[in-house]
Amino acid sequence: ERALHGRLACLEEQNRQLLGQLAESQSQEDSTARKEREVMLRLKEVVDKQRDELRAQAHEIVCKSRDTEALQEQLHRFMAMNEDLRHKVAVVQAQLKSALEKKSDLEATMLQAQRETIRRSRTASEIQRPKPSLEGAPSPTEEPRHQDADAGRSPAHCCFSKEELQQILQERNELKTNLFLVQEELAYYQRELLNEERVPSFFLDAMKSTIKRQRKKIRAKMLGTAEESAS
User: pLDDT tens digits for 23-81?
Assistant: First the structure.
């Protein structure tokens, strides 16, 4: 009977040990499971965060791609505008050059016509001026002298008719009118160039210098002096 009691006590002790080990094992398993759940939650948070970042980056890439396309279209428009501006500047430059040349030619022609008109008017006034009366009748020897002097006059000193003078004045007025129209056209082209915001500054400086030289040239022609002296 003692042996049975000793055996029973030993078995009870073993049973308590096994129960303790089982409880410890279950607690370890619970701790491991809890740690695994925590790790899984952390991983899920990291994955969700990375997914959100990837979506944000994808959206940013799409927006940048659209911005790039818009910038490319704007660049194409600017290039087309630049080409159109170059063509416009070339046309205006050619028109301005033609207007300057036309103005210079018309002013030179008008100046020449004015000089010719003044010369003819002086000639006509000298011819139509009454001769001073001489005391006494001219001697027979003096009369042939006057005839020879009148015969020796050049054709340029002949008297112009009224119709010819009117024609000269009409031509002069037409030249003045054409000159005024050319000046207005030149002023228009200058305003178009100088008010154009997209025209480069070096081109405006070159055009101003050209206009200044043309004005000096025209002034020299009007004054009848050399171009170098006017500059």
Answer: 777 777 777 888 888 889 999 999 999 999 999 999 999 999 999 999 999 889 889 88
Tokens read off for 66: 């659209």
Would residue 112 count as lying in a domain? yes
Q: Which domain holds residue 188?
A: 89-126+158-230
Q: Tell me whether residue 214 is in a domain.
A: yes
Q: What is the pTM of this model?
A: 0.35
C-beta separation of 157 from 123 below 8 A: yes
- 20: its two tokens: 């303790």
Residue 147 lies in a domain: no
How many Å apart are CA 59 and CA 104, to the nearest integer? 66
Number of structural domains, the chain?
A: 1
- Check: CB of residue 96 under 8 Å from CB of residue 190: yes
**Among 88-102, 156-170, 205-219, whose mean pLDDT is lowest?**
156-170
More confident residue, 134 or 17: 17
- Classify each residue of 54-92 as buried b or exposed e, where b means 16 or more C-beta atoms within 10 Å of its C-beta: eeeeeeeeeeeeeeeeeeeeeeeeeeeeeeeeeeebeeb
- pLDDT at position 228 is 45
* C-alpha pair distances (Å), 120 with each of 108, 127, 164: 18, 10, 10
Does residue 3 sit within a domain?
A: no
How many CB atoms within 10 Å of residue 96?
21
In a 13 Å sphere around the CA of 101, the CA atoms on its Cβ side amount to 6
